[in-house]
Amino acid sequence: MPKRKGITVSRQIMDSQQTHPEATGELTGLLSELIVAAKIISAEVNMAGLAGILGQSGKTNVQGEEVQKLDDFANRTLKRRMEQCGYVCIMGSEEDDGVIPVLDGYEGKYTLAFDPLDGSSNIDVNVSIGTIFSVHRRKSEGKQGEMSDLLQKGSEQVAAGYIIYGSSTVLVYTTGHGDGVHGFTLDPSVGEFFLSHPDITIPEKAKYYSVNEAYSRYWHDDTTAYIDKLKDMDEQGERSYSLRYIGSLVADFHRNLIQGGVFLYPRDKKSTDKPDGKLRLLYEAAPLAMIAEEAGGMAITDDGRRILDIEPKDLHQRVALVIGSRDEVALAEEYFKKG
Ligand code: AHM
Ligand code: MG
Question: Which residues form the Fructose-1-6-bisphosphatase class 1 C-terminal domain (predicted)?
């Protein structure tokens, strides 16, 4: 059935469930619960300035970073909603050191990993932030899920997506297998997400590159050579690329997905505490990689490995990320394989 702009996200999820006769409706249920959590978080993000809850809560999270109040709120909302939805058996969050169990009797057949509010340094300054999620089918057979259920490769995700809280709130998700990547915009007056970006494909050629260039003195040589190459690639005297870097992964990724771009968070020579870059594999890189690939783009590490093929060893594992338009990530692959 062709996708009609304006249909609700619930209708779209149900329609796509019908094209999978083996589906039991549980993934539909899980996504619907996540969407409710997203609406609650979106409302809170919009009210945050007025309600006076901007600013840091003073605690530090497991990454040693300061937790801000909205991060806390988003984390609590997602956990409460999902621990008793009956569709997941275990969860992992950027804000929680260990795995998050679900309530007794509510164990389902999926796992959920999430970054409740990514881009937290931007909260106080009204810049877009987002929630990222990744869903796997459980492997273990007991009641509660196990860590090993969460530590699965990105290629085994059954759904992935993000919600960006920007000039409007937009949900982008995919269930893979050629079902496509779809974007829905929240109409806050009726509390519904409506299909606004059906069948998103990422432009093959990038307009933008996105990287924190302040760290360039610490880059490895192949990263420097690649970025220099992008800067030198002038076609007929025209400038080829512009630099755009927000510092909110979801916002940088979303812009590049719609307009064409490559985002990099490479390793550097300085960060001895973060030898694999800053971003997290399970709830940042892998879900965005699934979306990028499903939309026709690519996602690799800065040593040329496909993100979706990486076997996770740790819930909060970090990974260097190069993601976006196919031409530019393929070029990066050549540079990084050389390195
Ligand atoms: P966070 O999860 O603590 O918000 O950190 C992740 C964010 C990403 O959204 C963004 O891409 C990156 O940190 C920016 O880091 P930097 O300021 O080092 O460029
Ligand atoms: Mg994050």
Answer: 202-336
